[in-house]
Amino acid sequence: MCLLAFDASAQADRRAQGKADEWIGRDASDLLLQLRVDGGRVEITEDDQAGETRYSWATINPAWTETWTTGGNVVGISYGAPIYDSPVQVHERHHDATHRCTITFIADLEGIIRRWEMHGNACRSDVRRPKD
Questions:
Q1: Domain presence at residue 131
Q2: What is the pLDDT of residues 110-122, one digit of tens each?
Q3: Left if phi > 0, otherwise alpha if psi is -120 to 50, otherwise beta: which for 125?
Q4: Most CB within 10 Å of its CB: which of 8, 82, 86, 123?
Q5: 1-15, 46-60, 97-111: which has the minimum mean pLDDT?
């Protein structure tokens, strides 16, 4: 069973890598036109010494709060929500934001993508291939 999970994970990683490989040899301006750049999603870093520009995208699962009610008997339903008699307790649990994937494309001085780096557990669904 563990071997099957590893194999499925390896196939997903290969799919993400295959999508990233399709950007190799393309102009970096295509990245900025085709991938989301709003909301601080892209970080551009220039390395003059190496003659490279790094374009990084990170995706996250946003923070969220789970709420549930305990205690009391259900005495009715209003608009699909249960109505409880006393005593009722409302509980909340906060869940922090979690990292999904970071992909960085590295372009040369001419602006051509030469390689990429990626890490994260959701890259298979977050990495996008170029639109032709």
A1: no
A2: 999 999 999 998 9
A3: alpha
A4: 123
A5: 1-15
Does pTM surpass 0.85? no
- β-sheet bridge partners, residue 113: 107
Which amino acid appears at position 125 of this protein?
S
Give Cα separations from 68 to 77, 79, 93, 98, 106 (angstroms).
Answer: 16, 17, 9, 22, 46
CA separation for the pair 106, 114 (Å, rounded):
6
CA geometry: angle 110, 112, 114, nearest 5 deg: 125
Identify which of 27, 7, 12 has the alpha carbon closest to the alpha carbon of residue 118. 12
Contacts of 76 (CB under 8 A, 6+ apart): 82, 83
One domain, residues 35 and 75: no
Domain of 69, in residue numbers: 64-95
Say yes or no: 105 and 91 in one domain.
Answer: no
